[in-house]
Amino acid sequence: MTRLVILGAGTAGTMLANAVAKHHPTWSMTVVDADDQHVYQPGLLFLPFRGRPDRLVRSRKAQLNPRVDYVNSPITAIHPDQKRVDLGVGIIIDYELLVIATGSHPRPDLVEGLTDERIWRRRAHEFYSLEGAIALQRTLRTFSEGKLLVHIAEMPIKCPVAPLEFALLAEDHYRKRRLRHKVDITFATPLDGAFTRPVAKQTLGDLLVDRSIRVTTDVAVERIDPASQRLVAYDGRELPFDLLVTIPPHTGARVLEGTGLVDDVGFVRVDPHTLRSVVDPSVFAVGDATNVPTSKAGSVAHFQVEHLLENLAAVAEGREPTARFDGHANCFVESGRGQALLLDFSYDVEPLPGTYPLPGVGPMSLLKPTRLNHLGKLAFEPIYWNMLLPGRPLPVPTTLTLTGKRPVTGKD
Ligand SMILES: Cc1cc2nc3c(=O)[nH]c(=O)nc-3n(C[C@H](O)[C@H](O)[C@H](O)COP(=O)(O)OP(=O)(O)OC[C@H]3O[C@@H](n4cnc5c(N)ncnc54)[C@H](O)[C@@H]3O)c2cc1C
Question: What value does the mean pLDDT take over residues 55-61?
Answer without folding.
Answer: 98
